[in-house]
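Page 42, continued from yesterday. The earlier attempt failed because a stray header line got pasted into the input along with the sequence. Redoing it now with the clean sequence only.
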Amino acid sequence: MHVTSSAVNRHNKLYFVDQSSELYEGNNWPLSLLWRYLKDKNHDTNELWRLIEEIVIKTIICAEDHIIGSASNLPSRYNGYELFGLDIILDEKLKPWLLEVNISPSLHSSSPLDLAVKGPLIKEVFNIVGYHFPDLFPKFLKKKFVHAMNPQVKLETPVFDRRLYSTTLSTEEKLKQNLIKQNWNSREKYMSKILENLTPDDVRYLIQSEDEFSQCSGFNRIFPSSSAHEYFQFFEGPRYYNMLFDAWETKYCGNRVKGIRRLQELCDGKFHLQCVHSSKNTILDNGSSISEWMKEDVANGNREISSQMISSTLPSSNEAHRNLISNNTSYDDDSNSLAKMKRLGETLPKAKSVNSLTASESIKTC
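This time it went through. Structure tokens are written below.
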């Protein structure tokens, strides 16, 4: 048991919590108070936080293979999310070190300070996860809830649609993923190609990512990002969805409205709801098929597609590394979702994040 644990320290007669959260006193501080204290001592908190974020990303990458293995046993991606807690200790030079990772961090609130930190955290976690209305909801309840959320939103079926979380890839979607993964070591090549022709599976992942991101106010998404490709070298192998989000974030991180508009146009025609059981030949967002796209690619001499690559089978799309790795810093009530594509045709609700990780704002000190 390490010395930062309040479960141990609270038994010390000198232990107390400063309920005001304003004075540099007590043994349990919110992160904002620690940051203010360090700034008063002329320390660079931005650099410190960057180092902590790096620890978070690398920690998840270390466990990524096991996380994917666990996720592959889930009946649906809709069920895939998890909250982790990282214990970080700072040495005398303010270098952060990882102590441990809690797979079931305590959300119990034993003090007003705990409640002030963990209450908003829990609320935002559920907003990011994004539960759907059960399909068995009576119609009057559906209308009641939809009206309570936003009277202006018109939804055909404001309930769970399993097509949004389909993990089965069509043959041509597998071909595209295999083709793109051949360029794992050449970012320039896959960046120029992967967004050129989106598949229904691509669009579903992008929709869910944008919807999750729109619900972040206290959470700060650090993976995926436009600079996340710097960590690809630490993965055991190429991850198609890492490459997809790398390209998406690089292109649209400075103009998310433009990216969302592109998704809205596709959703308006219910392109995202094309699943393998309903379409033998996947159509790309430009109207051509993947086979045609690949033939053109080969004709132009850009790719060498072997029969072995075409016939290979990809793992389940649960392999997707669409991690919403987050650190909570502050919390504000934000009910304004950027993902307005929910208004179009079928319901596009907030998606479940495959892996969601948070470092608790509550900092334990001796």
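Notes: The mean pLDDT is 75.
Reminder to self: strip header lines before submitting.
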